[in-house]
Design goal:
6-stranded antiparallel beta sheet; binds adenosine-2'-5'-diphosphate; 5-stranded parallel beta sheet; 28% strand; 278 residues; 9 helices; alpha/beta
């Protein structure tokens, strides 16, 4: 049977043409700021829906209406749980289904977000320890941007080491900006003090610190540079976020050092985020 023609709904033609309907059950937030770092990297901040709760280190599904359809991808929330706004750090893929559009957003634009955040890079998934290593490559730094700005991280750990490896020096800038923001922050600056160590390295350009983090762990240079002993499962904890190959290789080294992988329902000595947008 054919559905009867709907004659009782009126949609203003200009509204229908310019603004596709927002799908039910998702947040529609307003972009507040956009900063482009390189041809391939940018970050943006948007409004945080009242009542949207998450744990620092979790990710959410972020999307845009493309034509009349929403497209979503998993994005780590880069801002900490206490922040009134939400921050994201993203790659730009020229023909990427979402990022080819997302890279063009401007303040005032609408970004969609599904309601339920989730993820394994949370402090609750780790057993107590003294030192927390955060291993990241590329935009894998995003969940750690959240955690290094959360006071709880420093309540739970005496020392926090953020490693960030990129191909080129320009790609490290977000990490340096975060360190500066923390140092200058009214409350965080004092709380963090010298507990947070930043270890940036690049693999395809000249730079004082060079090489894949996995090679630097294997050679022991990472620990020598930091003035720390090699990994010890009694005191060291780890979180890993990067490409699939980097996750696999870093995990193997942590396991070789005697650390075991944990999860939300089974805390242990290290955790991995597998929903990373690479
Ligand atoms: P490399 O330049 O030697 O490939 P990508 O953009 O490909 O995700 O790489 C981001 C950074 O991660 C690069 O510095 C890259 O080094 C490094 N990387 C890539 N694969 C691995 C891996 N399996 N283990 C550790 N680091 C990796």
């Amino acid at each position: 049977m054919n559905a009867p023609a709907k004659t009782d709904e009126f949609v203003a033609p200009e509204a229908a043409a310019s603004k596709p309907a927002i799908p039910d059950g998702v947040y529609a937030e307003t972009v507040l700021a956009v900063e482009h770092y390189t041809e391939h990297l940018f970050r943006f901040r948007m409004t945080r829906p009242p009542g949207f709760r998450f744990r620092s280190g979790e990710f959410a599904m972020i999307g845009l209406m493309v034509g009349d359809k929403p497209i979503y991808r998993a994005y780590s929330i880069a801002s900490p749980a206490w922040d009134e706004e939400l921050e994201f750090f993203s790659i730009k893929v020229p023909d990427g289904p979402l990022t080819s559009h997302l890279q063009k957003i401007k303040p005032g634009d609408t970004v969609l977000m599904r309601k339920k955040p989730t993820g394994t890079l949370v402090l609750d998934a780790l057993t107590p320890g003294k030192r927390l290593y955060m291993f990241s490559t590329g935009t894998g730094i995003a969940p750690f941007a959240s955690l290094i700005r959360d006071p709880e991280t420093y309540e739970k750990f005496e020392e926090v080491i953020l490693t960030h490896t990129c191909r080129e020096v320009a790609e490290l800038k977000y990490g340096f900006d975060l360190m500066e923001e923390i140092r200058e922050h009214e409350f965080l600056g004092e709380m963090v003090g010298d507990k947070l160590k930043h270890y940036p390295t690049v693999t395809r350009e000249d730079y004082p610190f060079q090489g894949r983090i996995t090679d630097l762990m294997e050679s022991g240079k990472l620990y020598t540079d930091l003035g720390l002993p090699p990994l010890d499962p009694a005191v060291d904890r780890g979180m890993i976020c990067g490409s699939t190959a980097m996750l696999k290789d870093t995990k193997a080294l942590l396991e070789k050092a005697g650390l075991t992988e944990g999860a939300n329902n089974k805390p242990a000595e290290f955790v991995i985020e597998r929903a990373f947008v690479g």
